[in-house]
Specification:
Blueprint (H helix, E strand, L loop, with lengths): L2 H4 L1 H9 L7 E5 L6 H13 L14 H7 L6 E4 L23 H5 L1 H6 L8 E5 L7 H12 L5 E7 L7 H5 L2 E4 L5 H10 L5 H7 L4 H9 L2 H12 L7 H14 L6 H19 L11 H8 L4 H17 L6 H14 L4
Parallel strand pairs: 1-4, 1-5, 2-3, 3-4
């Protein structure tokens, strides 16, 4: 996916800062917009020895070769280990961390005191910044408060409000907006994604998430879920719970309970939109079905159901029993049609 074509205004804004870079930049926006990929492109451009006229890295110089191979002496990437090596973890080995650790931040000490290569720029990319716990964030804050010369911190965040206010205050914020659907669909189609509009809608307008959904084999279970939810009052909650417990188990970590709950949240949002005479946002092909279901559900019940589903989403991180959890979720859904 060509993120520069997806966010041309953001890219041009970043290029405009080249001559007078701040000490730290913070790219913010909803998940799946391509912020990290855009940040990587900007890093490559800053490190490149012969950037092109449009600001992109040449991809041919020595610096570009180092960067593409992950060993540029003036670049460090701080991200959770779980986002790095996606290979399977051996039995008995500790699972990769989902957080940026304080040791990773402390590991920057030597990097920041050594001179830069060819008197260039030193860059630290932090992604996602909210993956730092409080101790890690405080350790990074000390570095931001006393910036080393010729150093740029580039932070990427899906949830900037989870960052320490003191970290946000020391960064120049670069908002990355959700692209227009037509542009996003065009970029996705150019990337080879069939039925781009459908996946983009399911992803809430986030092109990166649309690609992720389509590539993860989620089409099958989504079609199953939609078919079962469309049954309304005739849905079988217990059978549906058993079916999805098996799908989650058989996926070996690719399908999570929270993902199922998020899909149901989107279905409820579309029901609420249809209830108010508005077009659906996520499940476009099911517009007529959703409108028919919405007509027989009390508006207040939809509001209460969505609020309850927010709590369910939190519980889905560590449910005590997957089957019982799913049974509760789908029983609550069928109860919408009890009146």
């Amino acid at each position: 996916m060509n993120v520069i074509n997806l966010h041309p205004k953001v890219w041009n804004g970043l290029l405009a800062r080249r001559q007078q870079l701040p000490h730290s930049l913070l790219l913010v926006g909803q998940k799946g917009l391509g912020k990290f990929a855009l940040a990587r492109q900007f890093v490559a451009s800053l490190l490149c020895e012969e950037p092109q006229a449009d600001g992109r890295a040449c991809g041919k110089c020595l610096a570009c070769n180092w960067y593409s191979q992950g060993n540029h002496p003036d670049f460090r990437l701080l991200q959770p280990d779980a986002l790095g090596d996606e290979s399977e973890v051996e039995d008995g080995k500790k699972k990769p961390s989902q957080q940026i650790t304080i040791d990773q931040v402390r590991g920057l000490d030597d990097f920041l005191i050594v001179g830069t290569h060819r008197a260039g720029l030193r860059i630290i990319l932090v992604n996602p910044a909210e993956a730092m716990n409080r101790n890690t964030a405080n350790a990074l804050l000390k570095t931001l408060e006393e910036p080393a010369p010729d150093t740029l911190f580039l932070l990427v965040s899906n949830e900037p409000l989870r960052l320490l206010p003191t970290i946000r205050s020391r960064c120049q914020v670069v908002p990355v907006a959700t692209p227009q659907p037509a542009l996003a669909a065009q970029v996705l189609a150019a990337a080879g994604l069939p039925d781009a509009g459908r996946w983009l809608a399911l992803a809430g307008g986030s092109p990166g998430l649309a690609l992720e959904l389509s590539a993860s084999g989620q089409g099958m279970w989504l079609e199953t879920l939609v078919k079962r939810l469309a049954a309304g009052r005739h849905a079988d909650p217990l059978g549906l719970a058993a079916e999805f417990e098996k799908l989650v188990k058989d996926s070996k970590g690719k399908l999570l309970l929270k993902t199922v709950v998020e899909a149901l949240q989107k279905w409820l949002i579309d029901l609420s939109l249809a209830k108010n005479g508005l077009p659906v946002r996520y499940f476009l092909p099911q517009q007529a079905t959703i409108s028919g279901l919405a007509d027989i559900i009390p508006a207040l019940s939809l509001i209460h159901s969505y609020r309850d589903m927010i709590k369910r989403r939190q519980e889905a991180e560590q449910p005590l029993n997957a089957r019982l959890f799913l049974e509760g979720v789908f029983l609550d859904y069928r109860a919408l049609f009890a009146n």
